[in-house]
Amino acid sequence: MIIGDILNALERLAPLSQQEPYDNSGLQVGLTRTETAGVLFCLDVTESVVDEASEEGFNLIVSHHPLIFNPIKSVTDRTSIGRCIIKAISNGIAIYSAHTCLDNDMHGVNAMIASKIGLRGLRILRPMSGSLMKLVTFVPKACSEALLQALFDAGCGNIGDYDSCSFTHDGIGTFRAKEGANPYVGHIGELHREPETRIEAVFSASSKAAVLEALLKNHPYETPAYDIYPIDSATSGTGSGMIGTLDTPVRASDFMRQIKSVFGIGSLGYSGDAGRMVSRVALCGGAGAFLIPDALRAGADIFLTGEIKYHEFGDNDDRILLVEMGHYESEQFTQHLLLDAMQRQFPSVKMKITERGTNLKKYI
């Protein structure tokens, strides 16, 4: 099992096409064709984490936050980033970061937070534009079910909490095969009319290559007719933040105490009426204050995120209850999400979450 196999699985879990333009997700440092000795998961890459990997024989570190976020002009021992890079390369350790690829995934960081606090009916708070595409194709009626299943297996048909979603309609397709063609039905030089089924299904833009491969491999025609085009939809499974509903309304103060307990947080920052009842909850792991307007438009009673600026609390306290959890605290379970997903696929590979504290913000 080489490191590249693990990286491919990580990119299937959280495709690089889902990252924000400002981000630098993906492979940060290292070789991909080296045999995997072990995978160490963390939220942030620190010198201590690289030392841990080296001491315990892990040659792949998978972090949430990128080690190299902003462009660097030199790699020296004068900066912590430089020292991490030098140590990693010297010890044959690769470093990969998931960051906004996972932040923007329907089953990523925000879904993990939502599951911890018991939200239901989840949807993306701000869907990513252009993240959904639609395939339209035409296939002989007798072959439609087999092709449709192959498309589902490749990633078509996922809408919100539903899969295998499609629309089909029967009609008549016409074509004339020219010299040199090898028609599945009909004859060279003759106009042919074939009972066909029109298939429509949506898919994530990150699945386009897999969907095209499934279409061309499973369609009986040597030259299938098909269209692929982007669509805008609020049901997109890719984007920022998440919103859902609690099973029963709860007093905000009690809900915040629950959050402190579940996430092991010493104190929460909040604004608004802690005595109000809340049921509709919007959230975003990390620095998510940019989504406050989206939470308001979605009718959220409360918005949870890792970081909120001081004046942002005052600007909105009469319309929505805002809660600041702490950046690390809100995203800490991302390590478990990544570990669980990779262990299911590679049970024989040594894996663990770092035992070195990586919260960059300290408290007294």
Automatic annotation (TrEMBL):
Annotated source species: Candidatus Avibacteroides avistercoris
Quaternary assembly: Homohexamer.
The name this protein goes by in its record: GTP cyclohydrolase 1 type 2 homolog
Lineage of the organism: Bacteria, Pseudomonadati, Bacteroidota, Bacteroidia, Bacteroidales
One example GO MF annotation: metal ion binding
Family in the record: Belongs to the GTP cyclohydrolase I type 2/NIF3 family.
Top-level lineage group: Bacteria
A GO cellular-component term linked to this record: cytoplasm
Entry binding sites for a divalent metal cation 1: 65, 103, 327, 331
Residues annotated for a divalent metal cation 2 binding in this entry: 64
InterPro entries reported in the protein's UniProt record: DUF34/NIF3, DUF34/NIF3_bac, DUF34/NIF3_sf, N-reg_PII/ATP_PRibTrfase_C
Keyword vocabulary terms for this entry: Metal-binding
